[in-house]
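Consortium newsletter contribution from the modelling node. Members have asked for a concrete example of what our holo predictions look like. Here is one, prepared for the zinc ion complex that several groups have been discussing at recent meetings.
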Amino acid sequence: MGGPGHGEFPIFEFLSEGRTSEGSVCCGGAGFACLPSPGRTEVRSRIPPLLAGPGMAENRRSGPQATALIYDEDMTRVRLLWDDPECAIEGPERLTATYARLCHRGLAQRCVRLPAREATEEELGLVHSPEYVAVVKGTQTMSTEELRTLAQQYDAVYFHPSTFPCARMAVGATLQLVDAVLTGAVGNGMALVRPPGHHSQRDAANGFCVFNNVAIAAEHAKRRHGLQRVLIVDWDIHHGQGTQGVFENDPSVLYFSWHRYEHQSFWPRLRESDYDVVGQGPGRGFTVNVPWNKVGMKNADYVSVFLHVLLPLAIEFDPELVLVSAGFDSGIGDPEGQMQATPECFAHLTLLLLPLARGRLCAVLEGGYHLQCLAECVCLTLQTLLGDPVPALSGDPAPCLSSLESIQNVRAAHAPHWASLRHEDTGPILTPSTWCGDGGPPLLGAQSVGTTERRGTLLDKLLSCPPPPPHTGIGLAVPDSTSSLNLPPALLQEEGVIVSKEEAEMWSRLDSASTQDQALAALGKLLALLDKILTGQVRAGIAVSPAVSAAMAVALRKGLTGGAQRLLCVAVGELDIPEDLRDNGRILLLNIGGKEQSEAAASRTHICLGGHEATEPGTFLLALTSLILPVAYSFRPDLVLIVLGPDCGLRNLDVELLTRLLQGPVAGQMLLLLQNPDLPLVEALAWALEGRALPSTLGPFLSASPKQALAITRLCRQRRLDWPMLQVSVT
Ligand code: Q9C
Ligand code: ZN
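And here is the predicted structure:
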């Protein structure tokens, strides 16, 4: 395969040839069976009555709703030709095992398949020196001995006669993906590539990496597509020091990396991987390092860092493209990382990134050396890119002391550079050399790190998790006038059950507004829809009620009688919450933008961020990442109820964002209750429940008012012992 040579965006030609095949390139001759998957259409057709939107099923195949997958067997050619225990883990089976599992799960078949191509030398020159490219080019004709001698000039690298074409193809595959996303041919996607890239530097191979795939792609996005802000999220367990070096002076690329560090004792053992290294010159503040100083980090540690470090900065940065250096050596079972994040954690990390850049996310494989873990993690990442609901996050929802220490330090180091951290009580920087988390008193709610790794059965069980439950649809309980909307296909329009005045009074406790005819009809639809959600016939839904306070009370009572064990109610705006539901142990009530509450009225399960300012965009975004999501992840609800009061004050975009992100802690089961049948909002929320990307970016950063920021910070501090994911410091 040659370089592009003709036309600037080869993938455009590819798509216009009509080869946007779903399934036809399925197993690509890799020699394994392609099992039929529980396809969406099959499952949906069981839900009557169907209300199919025009041509929506087609939308996944190309265009902004589609997910691209790039994989080419040519990248399995490179392999270690001599004995070297350090390099032996980076072998071709990493790709074949991963791709086999994607096909087995039916995920590869749901993606738009894009061809890889070899990057041109000009493209390699976006990051690498011509001299270095010439050195790698020369490996094509070298003997094994010569390859071995050359490899010794670098740290943890091997070469093979196929290294040059493979490494060019890894770059080219990444560029194909970025071009497809930036031209709108697809919405997001993943490239399965070898060799990996993030350790590679301008003049050097390093850590199995030859050319820096993601760094070249970021430069390409800037130069060829004119982007001004690119976010790189490096969730591989090693520090991408190569990528950091390329962009350390560059404020147009925000580079975030977490990495096993152990106080600089873990490879590559660099001082520049610590939290206080933040970039240089104009690039100060645009390098974000989160060192893990212990092994055994879990789901809660990873999600906490996303909520309290990455997301605030990323929202403020407002990227036009998100590139993920997607290494899965940060997953459980990996011999390099020694961490304990389970595969579904990567679904959650992906979900948390999708609201950025209108969902323009490109995941590019880096490390990952436990074949089962790698394959499973890639499946969960791709599934989330495809819009499937994320599975519940397992494990104790509390970060460990060591990760809290890192969170505190990196927030303090970045507070001078980011308004979203500046107003916070970030606490002091702890000296890395003197402080070592184990000595201090145990913090309530924080878990100490488990160092004993339970191998064998537990790990096998975690990694062989069955395919996720079939996607069950979305239901609408709205007035009949919504049939003209552009709604997701296979959406259930709830007909409702007949509710008598007496029943209505029983549910809503003599609320006269709710016994009017219109309200009775709405109540009938609401009860029927909620029943379907509670019995698993429908995953999520939207209900409109003219008497939303009463409907909220009904939904909460119905949720309790219907078996919800932990019910999270996020009530936005002024809503009346009946006394008997306030301190029910099974309901956690989060009221945003309602009447100011006295502190005496507050309790463990009743959290209020009152006042109209609470729903202003800047304040709300801060509340979402620092309060709402941490509380929700700590509570682990089995049902979420989002209630929008009359004139609740939130922008439609923020309601969509809340809807998208709260699907994480609840693993999908959600009911939205609205007072106003605002049709564009109903339509947008139906798509948000379906997993579609947000239609626009969150926009230029708006900061919370100092008063509101203080109120949020105080609330988080007050409640952090009840809800441990709220913690941002060890002090
Ligand atoms: N036991 C990537 O994951 N060996 N590269 C470290 C520590 C080098 C990892 C030895 C690891 C390189 C892309
Ligand atoms: Zn790695």
